[in-house]
Design goal:
Layout lengths: L4 H17 L1 H10 L4 H10 L17 H14 L1 H20 L2 H13 L4 E4 L15 E5 L2 E11 L7 E8 L2 E8 L5 E5 L12 E11 L3 E2 L5 H37 L1 E2 L2 E2 L4 H29 L4 H28 L10 H11 L6 H15 L4
Parallel strand pairs: 1-4
Antiparallel strand pairs: 2-3, 3-7, 4-5, 5-8, 6-7, 9-10
Length: 377
Amino acid sequence: MELSPGQEAARAAFAAYVAEHVTPHAGAWDRDAATPREAIDRLAATGWLGAVIPAAQGGAGMDWVTFGLLNEELGRGCSSIRSLLTVHSMASHAVLRFGSRAQKERWLPLLARGEAIGAFALSEPNVGSDASAVETVATKDGDGWVLDGRKKWTTYGQVADVFLLFAKAEGKPVAFLVERDSPGLTVEPLRGITGTRASMLAELRLDGCRVPAEARLGGVGFGLGIAVATLEVGRYSVACGTAGIVRACLDASLAYAGERVQYGVPIGQHQLVQRMLAGMAAGARAAHWLCLRAGWLRDAGDPAATHETFVAKYFASTAATQAALDAVQIHGANGCSEDFPVERYLRDSRVMEIIEGSTQIQEVAIARGELAAAPRP
């Protein structure tokens, strides 16, 4: 399959935006461990933060392939700001799919315009990928709820206005839309992160945090289903953004290998360097097309989209790690310096093998899916 003219035009627009407004600043954002508010506002002004929200509700109404292309281009420029699109889209998708009429009317226009930033609060100090094991407790209190617990690694939690937060009520999973100014909620910045340093991670402390009844998203017991559906959106976004990292590694390495001279010739003429470049080129193409395939299947409503998203995320993240390792090697000592972006790509690629399901979880899910689909003798 090929991209439509509209999708090609969108990709060109995304690439131009990233070249002007993201790539030149990504290193500084990483060193400062923060995304400037003006960068967030500029992205919001494009309307792309409303990518997964239909146009009828104020959003960009992108198809999944176009959304994937946006993530790929942002990921090529800066994995941190791509992470903003990821978690904001996860929260938006959850409201769109599971929200009440009142929740949709209130939140979707704000999220679409970026006037409210959404974040995904699932992980806890003792809980990562096992969404069924959250320890945060929700207790019914009159016509509202009281939340107690801790959330950790909340991407853009330092600036988010509303958190899609998961807890348990009487042992059953439940989801809430928790506003930043809710009494009993404390947001603490997390420092010293290895990769995606500008994604402004936070820890949320919920100490008798009171939220109204209308903050609950879906019914008690439906929280796990909401988490799974939302994580699938995040996994697709991360996969596409990680394909962008592979491409960025290739671009940087081609430029360096064409200019750096050793033993009288550019290092790109040395065969062992060519081997690394060839691996990156193949990885970039494969990751790109695997992500597109997952997007096309999502657009078609094909149930196989879930499995293919696992495959795309697994391949893209492992390919990014290898590409980044080789990119640093090609750059030599310069590859270990903040003066060149490949050291950031290496740190960011390690994060991609952990978030939205670790590489090992992807391997288990893929193998089980393949075994289930295999013909029986």
